[in-house]
């Protein structure tokens, strides 16, 4: 119905604006509408081609070459990839990121879900104020958030020594080799849990409250309402934050890069794949190898997210 | 919709909840969380008042030292190294408003195009967009750097602004929102009344798209302001740095020479505080918009 109307309007408009003598055909009108549609998309399309498609292709192209000080640049096909996937630095970075995601993502989702469910039930001034404050870390730059936590962990200015000292214990060193994993876990959770919480909270607010009343009349407890009604109904929002978290942690860069200077020795320049690519490209001017790492990383993330979305497709995902 | 239901429950529920004593446990839980989320802010606000001596003297890290000197620290922050800090803030604002604002304009146009026109290749283009949402943007930084360096554009403001115009997720949000918020019938009616496509867009569709526009604008400005990897890679002249890269630079300097860096630590602390104040204020004052807007992708 809407389609027909469009065609008719298209005809009417085409004949007035273009001032043609004979009335346009339907096909012409449809083509004109299509051209206008493309016109709206064109500015973004150009940026998309120049700053997304071109760099991806270019990275792939560069990754097929190797340049040596003597002898110039050679075409080496997939040698760089073979090198990357047998490079202990790259592999240890990948292993770290996978280990980190495996702990971080469930933890973060559980925490943000717990807070959102709690704030959905407790409606007081204090709860509203807390909601804002819990979100606030998201609004500040990752660099600043990491520096703030770096200070809190620090032996020189941090409060940890003082607090633990009061109980006669020595403070844990979250910048040391053993605990830096948890130090980073804490920084990322602090910064992002509030953002995820807001997405889940808004989804909870979108549920029709009459469902709860009906369930209560049927004898459902608060726990049953939470687990059987609320959580299933916000599956889309949960999926959305899972994908965000997945994309975010796999390209982990800023937090370890900033903490590196404070945690001398426990975070190397090859700590995550992204840091390793940065080091290869900018410290060692090895752009071909850096591109290979960048491209592999982008490709791995893309495939992971795509497969994930494909597997969850039946439940109706947010990208549809 | 979200705002109205939130408002309704705000008026209705507190009376009922106050009578139930079991709310004490959730309140304690929320209180504990609040402490956790606020402590870094508290730390930075308190320690911005200290000089190097106060920082290192071993007094309480979570309380003020003997001398509270915000004014002195601010003065040093804004005069250090020829007032470079103010320049960084200015750069951040420039990148955020031109890059983030430009990204929003592109998102609005493209979102409207995807949502309200049927044309050949639309499905394919939209699939490409969804694919782009999943591409980690940091993977693009190194090839983009090499590309721009061949055009002699690295180490200029354009190297930061132009790549910031790319926001696939913004286009996605805009498309999803526009599909529901702007009825086809209204566009057809405007066309019948003789309005051209562009006029229909500006006068009929755009006002209806406003909530999404504000959200995408806020998100892309914040994303550009907070960006670290892109400017870090693109810029080598410290005069062009945004505040994130600038403070990162101070931090690496202060860490690498422990003795000489003591005065830098207090600059880093007060510099961090000053740089987050505009963001915190804008988020608190625009909360009406972002709270509804952030969920657009998850609600259908």
TrEMBL record, chain B:
The keyword Transcription regulation does not apply. The chain crosses the membrane at residues 24-45, 93-114, 126-151, 157-177, 208-230, 264-286. GO terms for cellular component: plasma membrane. It is a multi-pass membrane protein. One of its GO terms (biological process) is transmembrane transport. Residues 89-285 form the ABC transmembrane type-1 domain. It holds the Pfam family BPD_transp_1. InterPro entries: MetI-like, MetI-like_sf. It is found in: Cell membrane. Keywords: Cell membrane, Membrane, Sugar transport, Transmembrane, Transmembrane helix, Transport. Belongs to the binding-protein-dependent transport system permease family. This is Multiple sugar transport system permease protein. It comes from Demequina lutea.
């Amino acid at each position: 119905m809407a389609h027909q109307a469009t065609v008719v309007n298209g005809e009417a408009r085409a004949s007035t604006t273009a001032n043609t003598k004979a009335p346009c055909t339907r096909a012409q009108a449809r083509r004109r509408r299509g051209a206008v549609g493309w016109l709206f998309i064109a500015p973004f399309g150009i940026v998309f081609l120049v700053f997304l498609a071109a760099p991806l292709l270019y990275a792939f192209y560069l990754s097929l070459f190797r340049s040596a000080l003597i002898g110039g640049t050679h075409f080496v096909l997939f040698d760089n990839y073979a090198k990357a996937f047998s490079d202990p630095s790259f592999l240890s970075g990948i292993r770290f990121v996978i280990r980190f995601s495996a702990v971080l993502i469930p933890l973060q989702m559980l925490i943000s879900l717990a807070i959102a469910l709690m704030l959905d039930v407790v409606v007081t001034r204090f709860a509203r104020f807390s909601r804002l404050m819990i979100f606030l870390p998201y609004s500040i730059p990752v660099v600043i958030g990491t520096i703030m936590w770096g200070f809190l962990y620090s032996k020189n200015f941090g409060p940890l020594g003082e607090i633990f000292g009061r109980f006669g214990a020595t403070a844990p060193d979250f910048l040391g080799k053993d605990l830096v994993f948890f130090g980073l876990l804490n920084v990322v959770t602090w910064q992002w849990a509030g953002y995820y919480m807001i997405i889940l909270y808004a989804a909870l607010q979108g549920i029709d409250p009459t469902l709860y009343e009906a369930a209560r009349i049927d004898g459902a407890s608060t726990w049953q309402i939470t687990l059987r009604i609320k959580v299933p109904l916000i599956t889309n929002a949960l999926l959305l934050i899972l994908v965000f978290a997945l994309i975010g942690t796999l390209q982990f860069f800023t937090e370890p890069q900033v903490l590196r200077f404070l945690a001398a020795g426990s975070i190397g320049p090859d700590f995550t794949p992204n840091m390793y690519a940065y080091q290869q490209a900018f410290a060692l001017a090895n752009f071909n190898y850096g591109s290979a790492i960048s491209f592999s990383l982008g490709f791995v993330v893309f495939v992971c997210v795509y497969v994930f979305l494909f597997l969850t497709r039946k439940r109706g995902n947010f990208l549809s | 919709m979200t705002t109205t239901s939130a408002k309704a429950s705000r008026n209705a529920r507190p009376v009922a909840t106050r009578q139930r004593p079991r709310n004490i446990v959730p309140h304690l839980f929320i209180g504990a969380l609040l402490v956790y989320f606020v402590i870094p802010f508290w730390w930075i606000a308190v320690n911005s008042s200290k000089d190097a001596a106060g920082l290192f003297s071993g007094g309480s890290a979570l309380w003020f030292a003997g001398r509270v000197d915000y004014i002195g620290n601010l003065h040093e922050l804004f005069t250090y190294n020829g007032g470079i800090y103010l320049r960084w803030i200015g750069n951040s604002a420039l990148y955020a408003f031109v890059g983030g604002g430009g990204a929003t304009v592109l998102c609005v146009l493209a979102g409207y195009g995807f949502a309200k026109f049927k044309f050949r290749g639309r499905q394919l283009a939209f699939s490409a967009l969804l694919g782009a949402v999943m591409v980690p943007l940091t993977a693009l930084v190194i090839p983009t750097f090499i590309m721009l360096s061949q055009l002699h554009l690295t180490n200029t403001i354009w190297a930061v602004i132009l790549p910031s115009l790319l926001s696939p997720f913004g286009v996605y949000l805009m498309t999803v929102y526009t599909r529901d918020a702007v009825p086809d019938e209204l566009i057809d009616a405007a066309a019948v009344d003789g309005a051209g496509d562009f006029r229909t867009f500006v006068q009929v569709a755009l006002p209806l798209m406003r909530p999404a526009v504000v959200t995408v604008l806020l998100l892309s400005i914040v994303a550009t302001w907070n960006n670290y990897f892109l400017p870090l890679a693109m810029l080598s002249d410290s005069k062009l740095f945004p505040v994130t890269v600038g403070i990162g630079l101070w931090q690496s300097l202060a860490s690498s020479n422990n003795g000489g860096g003591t005065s830098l630590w207090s600059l880093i602390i007060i510099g961090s505080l000053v740089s987050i104040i505009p963001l915190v204020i804008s988020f608190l004052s625009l909360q009406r918009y972002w709270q509804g807007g952030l969920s657009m992708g998850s609600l259908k």
